[in-house]
Write a structure and sequence with these properties.
Chain lengths: 166, 103
């Protein structure tokens, strides 16, 4: 059952991610990205990260992607113009990408040979209580710094999106 | 048929998603799609964090993934504001046309 669930949602994630990259219209990419994030939320649940699965759906698929879709609609972004790539990019792009992916997959397989098996329910420390406890004891300083970061981001967004830019 | 999934499968899935994000970042021309590819890469790294958290049976990886999520939210707000400003000032979303720092 674990294997079937993993395979189904991993395939959905990879197909949607390929769709993000190959679609020419940004709105199609955005909708595919929502698919990636939703299937990743299910994988988080399989790994025992209940809080993160909820946060993934709420923050990523909910807030961030709505922001993206809003901006795409606002700018009325059409399909990407087909332009010729440089000769080097056409020649070397795909082989280099495959080599990069192969190297990463190779190292993962070498460093973690069939060591730990993931059972659903094999890790019980991912609930909101445990996350909250760690967040307000061990990670208190990063948490407070994060609040300042968000304040700065809000101010930056307001300043950048103001009416007059001169 | 395996009864459970090895963590190397999760890490390989994370590597595939990250590589697809890199491909989108490098090969696409639309600035919004490039930005979405960055989000895809951040998601892939989050999956590895959660997988390592399971591997070590510790909650720390979840916290790192949580902070990555928060930074991604802040980055999306500021980045989309920058995209809006670029579009307002130049009227284009093609990154090849935004090259005034090259001269």
């Amino acid at each position: 059952m674990d294997v079937i669930l993993f395979l189904v949602f991993a395939i959905i994630a990879v197909v949607c991610a390929i769709n993000v990259v190959v679609q020419t219209h940004p709105i199609s990419s955005a909708v595919s990205l929502v698919g990636v994030m939703a299937s990743l939320a299910v994988l988080y649940l399989l790994l025992g990260a209940e809080f993160l699965a909820a946060a993934q759906v709420i923050v990523y698929a909910g807030a961030i992607m709505v922001l993206f879709v809003f901006v795409i609609m606002l700018l009325n972004a059409g399909a990407e113009a087909k332009k010729g790539r440089s000769f080097t990019a056409q020649l070397l792009g795909l082989p280099l990408w495959v080599a990069f992916l192969g190297l990463m997959a190779f190292f993962v397989q070498r460093l973690f040979p069939q060591s730990t098996l993931v059972h659903f329910g094999g890790f019980k420390g991912g609930g909101a209580a445990e996350i909250g406890h760690a967040l307000f004891t061990t990670f208190l300083l990063p948490f407070e710094v994060t609040s300042i970061l968000i304040l700065v981001a809000i101010l930056g967004a307001i300043v950048l999106a103001r009416k007059e830019m001169d | 048929m395996l009864a459970a999934v090895p963590i190397s499968w999760y890490l390989t899935l994370s590597a595939v998603l990250f590589a697809l994000g890199v491909a989108g970042f490098v090969f696409r021309r639309n600035i919004i799609t490039v930005f979405m590819s960055i989000e895809l890469m951040l998601n892939a790294v989050n999956l590895s964090f959660v997988t390592f958290s399971y591997h070590r049976q510790q909650v720390n990886g979840h916290l790192y993934a949580f902070f990555v999520m928060v930074v991604a939210a802040a980055e999306a707000a500021v980045g989309l504001a920058i995209i809006l400003t670029i579009f307002k000032n130049r009227g284009t979303l093609n990154i090849d046309d935004v090259d005034s720092m090259k001269d």
